[in-house]
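Why do we bother with a discrete structure alphabet at all? Because it lets us treat a fold like text: something you can write down, compare, and reason about line by line. To make this less abstract, here is a complete entry for Leucine-rich repeat-containing N-terminal plant-type domain-containing protein. Read it the way you would read a sentence in a foreign language you are learning: slowly, and without expecting to understand everything at once.
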Amino acid sequence: MKNISPSQFLFLSLLLLCFTSLAFGENTTHPEEVKALKDIGNTLGNKNWDTNIDPCSNQPPWTVSKDINVTCNCSIPTDTFCHVVSM
């Protein structure tokens, strides 16, 4: 079995880390869409939307009820952001 040098090990470790973060990295909602949700919530008088919590994170309050639920698409291959597709 061939031994690998420390520099090769470092390179392979960094490569693995990059692929892992790409495959399992958390996408966040695009900042412009978060601002739009905040504006919509203010216009509607909705005090339940907490835009300090990412709307596409599947965390409360965004998942508590259908009244404040948003549906996101985080699987666009060429995009690193999630996008709100329905409210």
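What the structure line is telling us, in plain words: The beta strands are 28-29, 71-73, 81-86. The two ends are 57 Å apart (CA to CA).
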